[in-house]
Write a structure and sequence with these properties.
Blueprint (H helix, E strand, L loop, with lengths): L2 H16 L24 E3 L10 H11 L1 E3 L11 E2 L8 E2 L2 E5 L5 H11 L1 E8 L9 E8 L12 H13 L5 E2 L5 E10 L8 E2 L2 E2 L10 E12 L2 H28 L20 H19 L4 H15 L1
Parallel strand pairs: 1-12
Antiparallel strand pairs: 1-7, 2-5, 3-4, 5-6, 6-7, 8-9, 9-12, 10-11
Helix pairs in contact: 6-7
Length: 314
């Protein structure tokens, strides 16, 4: 009779022992695996990850390497969520929120996600940031803005799997901004909260069920960096320099006066002034002007000829 009651406790003790080096179970110090807004903390970056991940800019760089980006123009319409990680700090606001960028430039992608919905993650650092420790994430998939960003069916498990799946590319993920390569492994942990519609006895937001698993990620920063970005930058720079040189060369020869018509006054405001037809018109105009000046014709004749030329030139 006691066995069914003891099994959950035994499972929890085994889970805590298995992941003791990765994170501290928040419940050991009155914390919770669910935010104050009733969303599960379903991804943990292990304390055994490269220590640099405890620096927020490095964590954000890693999220960039997965395809996530900072909030749309750094703005957030709703209030921040709070979590108690059992580290003595009580409930604290999320440190940040990153949205799926759909392969677009950073803010363009996160703004698009804000409109059409998709995957997003909130994160908190457990314990003192200056010390080695874990990072807890609440990942989910949401509807578009017309549906008030409600979570999609199975959205919490989908959000977790999106993060874990994108992170564990065998060759590593590459930051588009720094070129840093992140190598990540994942282990799915059970026993910290139950499957179903509650987490640690708290009803889950939107009444969306979960499978009770936590993705524990161990991230190692590679000593190598990708030269992919530097090569792209090199080719862009080379193309720019080449086009500038070719453009300058072409402009020099296009604008150099022809020896045949070098005595003509050329109106530089006119396009295609070196087109042969325009050159002929200019030459005819100049010859007519000389004839007019040599005669006793009135200046109005020259003005009329000029108007005729302007019409032809257009």
């Amino acid at each position: 009779m006691l066995l069914p009651l003891l099994l959950p406790l035994l499972s929890l003790r085994l889970a805590r022992a298995a992941f003791e080096a990765d994170f501290t179970d928040p419940r050991l110090a009155n914390g919770s695996w669910v935010t104050a807004q009733a969303e599960p903390l379903n991804v943990v970056v292990s304390a055994q990850s490269s220590r640099e991940l405890r620096e927020e800019d490095v964590l954000q760089d890693w999220l960039n390497s997965l395809g996530y980006a900072d909030e749309c123009l750094g703005l957030h319409a709703g209030g921040p969520q709070q979590a108690n990680l059992g580290d003595g700090n009580g409930y604290v606001n999320q440190t940040g929120l990153y949205r799926w960028a759909y392969g677009l430039p950073e803010h363009a992608g996160s703004c698009w996600e804000s409109l059409v919905g998709g995957s997003h993650v909130r994160y908190w650092f457990q314990g003192d940031r200056d010390e080695r420790g874990a990072i807890f994430l609440a990942a989910s998939d949401e509807h578009n803005i017309s549906m008030y960003h409600d979570i999609v069916d199975n959205g919490y498990d989908l959000g977790r799997d999106n993060v874990a799946g994108n992170a564990t590319v065998p060759s590593g993920t590459i930051s588009p901004s720094s070129g840093t390569i992140y190598l990540t492994t994942v282990e799915m942990a059970s026993g910290f909260f139950e499957a179903g519609l509650t987490v640690n006895g708290v009803a889950i937001n939107h009444e969306i069920g979960i499978d009770g698993l936590v993705a524990v990620l161990t991230i190692t920063i590679s000593e190598e960096t990708s030269n992919e970005l530097s090569l792209i930058s090199f080719f862009i720079l080379a193309a720019f320099v080449l086009s500038t040189l070719l453009g300058g060369w072409a402009s020099y020869y296009a604008l150099r006066p022809s020896s045949e018509y070098s005595t003509l006054r050329i109106d530089a405001r006119k396009p295609d002034i070196h087109d042969r037809r325009h050159q002929q018109l200019l030459l005819a105009l100049e010859q007519a002007r000389r004839a007019i000046r040599a005669s006793t014709l009135h200046d109005e004749a020259e003005l009329g000829l000029r108007d005729q030329y302007e019409t032809e030139l257009r």
